[in-house]
Specification:
69 residues, flat, 57% helix, mainly alpha, 0% strand
Length: 69
């Protein structure tokens, strides 16, 4: 369930700054992918992934633009 949310984050960057820098989303995809690489001594992530049921609930209740000032 992590990958759809990573795609959503990249899309959010594009929506936020696409008019200024159309390719900026590529930077954040690279940051995300680099952060996903296994490295020696790497600890666990602070929060586990959403379950499939939680992901479905999040997708069905999400309202694009809600919470934006």
């Amino acid at each position: 369930t992590d990958m759809p949310l990573c795609g959503l984050m990249a899309g959010a960057v594009s929506e936020y700054a696409g008019e200024v820098s159309a390719d900026l989303w590529r930077r954040y995809v690279a940051v995300l992918l680099e952060g996903m690489r296994c490295q020696p001594g790497q600890g666990p992530l602070p929060v586990g992934p959403l379950s499939e049921d939680e992901m479905e609930a999040a997708m069905s209740t999400w309202q694009p633009g809600a919470g934006q000032a």
